Protein 1
Amino acid sequence: MPATVLAGDIRDLRVWRSPDYTRVVIDLGSRVEYSVFVLDNPHRVVIDVNDSRMLADVARVDLVDSPVRSVRSAVRNQRDTRIVLDMDGPVNPSSFTLPPNDEFGDRLVVDLYDLGAESPARPAEIAPSSPAERQTVSSSSQRNIVVAIDAGHGGDDPGAIGFDGRIREKDVALAISRAVFERLRGIPGYEPVMIRQGDYYVRLQQRPQLARQNRADIFLSIHADSFSTSRAEGVTVYALSQTIAEDENIRRVAEKENSADLLGGVSGDTSLKNFEDDLALTLLDLSMAWSIEQSVAAGSYILNAIGSVARLRRDVPQQGNLWVLRSPDIPSLLIETGYLSNPREARLLTSADYQRRLADAIVQGVMNYFYERPPEGTLVAWQKANNQGPDRQYVVQRGDSLSLIAQRHNVNMAQLRAANNLRGDIVQLGQTLTIPGGGPMPVVSAPPTVSEHTISRGETLSGIAERYRVSLSRLREANDLRSDTIRIGQVLQIPAF
Ligand SMILES: [Zn+2]
């Protein structure tokens, strides 16, 4: 598979392990012509880079957790470089080149997909449980609410870089995601699933698919921002925009034969390809409208909870065109947790304490949303119907006192002492406390206004009401409108529910 011309220096070689493939990134001085092939007995991958010099020390490449045993390189034909990867087992290579970006120059990427049973050990982290396993998790017959946590970027994609040139978004996103996972794991009725569990890249299209495979009830993509000035700050929450959703639905119907898309919101596990185009589009529009409405509502609860620990850039969810949010059947949000270009926020975002507080707030928002709108058949729906909040587990952190914990969880001191057989008010760092549910879980009310719409040419108030599926009178009321006259550029508040 020869590619384009020009001579190149090989400046670095990096290896990232994903659950089912290994990514090898070769940093180049310019575009190169190259070829990739495999050899058996023993298993090797050979990468020939024409007209190039090896400047990297390949013996020192970090190969931990990867099926690459060693890397060697040699000069070939006096002007080409041959790179040989000694492998633990057979792989199927797939390669492509990437143009320079802010962070890196030209790159050659070789993805080595595992073949057969000889795949290497995965990173020692918690694997998402399969749907079959999950049914035994809850002691009652009520199912758990599955929360898919997607740490943005990863592996060769560092995401935004901090003000100091060192802090990387992929690390911050993974740390906060893990904190969300840990927090949710202790809450009966919830089951967190990590979409990315380590420092590797997962393709954008694959992220919502993994959420769907795990039958997620909500998808949260965790990111951090960066901007050209250090002043920008605050949390932003995004849901998919309605306009993008409409274009996306048309595309999905056109490709429905090859798509694994499900219509979860309206028809359970029905696949799109079982329907005629017209009907498929209608069902998809309905499902997507449901998904966006739920996303915006969940986003409001999450922002409301985050507001007590962080600054908010916008206090209502924003709607945008983001790949990972395009599920028609799973409410999906992207949370920009702050600006790494802002030294104050960057320091907070890299502190374990702040990551935990942020994660706790995200989880609180998720719980408030699901307590308000529990999916049928879940333990949370049962708890709500029976007027019970869930018992929760809490691990005592540095600086906690019993009264602080009671206050934070909205329970009184006597209840908290009784639930944990405590005589006094002394708690130890690292001690696990049961936070009694008892009465209904306190629900923090979400702000009633959840999105904004800027009027473009040709739009009418009734058209906008229809698009967002709110009544004309609610829309007038939310915007203090006496008549239905609107002007181009005017910003309307769209009430959610
Ligand atoms: Zn990002």
Protein 2
Amino acid sequence: MIEVRNLTKNFNGFRAVDHISFDVKRGEVFGLLGPNGAGKTTTIRMLATLTRPTEGTATVGNYDVVKDDDEVRKLIGLVSEKIIMYDRLTAKENLWFFGRLYGIPKEVLNERIDELLGLVQLGDWKGSQVGTFSSGMRQRMNVIRALLNMPKVLLLDEPTLGLDPQSSVEVREFVKKINREKKTTIILTTHMMVEADILCDRIGIMDHGKIAALDTSTNLKKLVSGDDTAILELEIANLTSNMIASIQSLKCVSSVSQDNSTHIKVHASGNGVFDTIIDAIRAEKGEINSVKNLEPTLEDVFLHITGHEVRDKADQKIPMRAHRRFMPRRRVR
Ligand SMILES: Nc1ncnc2c1ncn2[C@@H]1O[C@H](COP(=O)(O)OP(=O)(O)OP(=O)(O)O)[C@@H](O)[C@H]1O
Ligand SMILES: [Mg+2]
């Protein structure tokens, strides 16, 4: 459905998107996962014909985003980072307004609005002003607005940004539902590992304008949990900083992080890492209560591939330097 080849975008000499290539199959949910400034929105905007590539090509349904931009626009629905909705109009009036802008005939539009409102469980709210809606309800409205023209491809730029956990779950659920019931091909961007993991059939990990890795979540995780790599969680009753330092100094250990006063997480690789780590703790007279072999998360994958962590912006435990780097640029709502 979508073919991207060496797609590149420069802004005054700054390369925001750097020769990326990927395909998205019909009916697939494809995720672009990366921190602030990775180039996700710029990629979406090129696919949506809103900004022209500096180099490379992209096609949607075999139409070129530059040469056949009118055709591409007929195929896509775009949910951008900003919510465009009129607070004083009701849910139905808003959808009616945008539907008429798309040129959808009145006879069809009425029925479609009811169907879409039903799809996101807002049927009972159709006569209420959007200004009275919660942020989750507004975001659901934002997404169905993009579905009015029955797009074959839905482009979702950070669909759950700024939503509370409950609303995020709701939005994710109906994104899945749209994909399942309408067979819509979806590209979504996110900086949230969990979101990519839950929603996407395949994930492209983006960093500094490049796609650093691209595969299913399961396969990406195999990159960090091969036969000789492990992520262990240890509970040590009398944990001391000496023990942590001694584990850290082991050749097979790439990182140690302390979760609380008794729990540590160790990334290690090589033969017999398990015994080596246990021996090191015993040598420091550590009392080991439990050892768990953890399943890797996408966060571990990101760290492994890019050499740095991507953090949810809500996470305040980020060191100041990294924090500044991942701070939102224009996130005021
Ligand atoms: N119109 C523009 N002019 C100049 N630089 C831009 C423009 N749009 C984006 N950039 C820069 O390109 C880089 C990629 O931006 P982009 O918005 O695509 O990132 P993103 O991955 O969507 O990040 P975020 O998670 O913050 O939304 C950033 O460094 C940004 O400052
Ligand atoms: Mg963005």
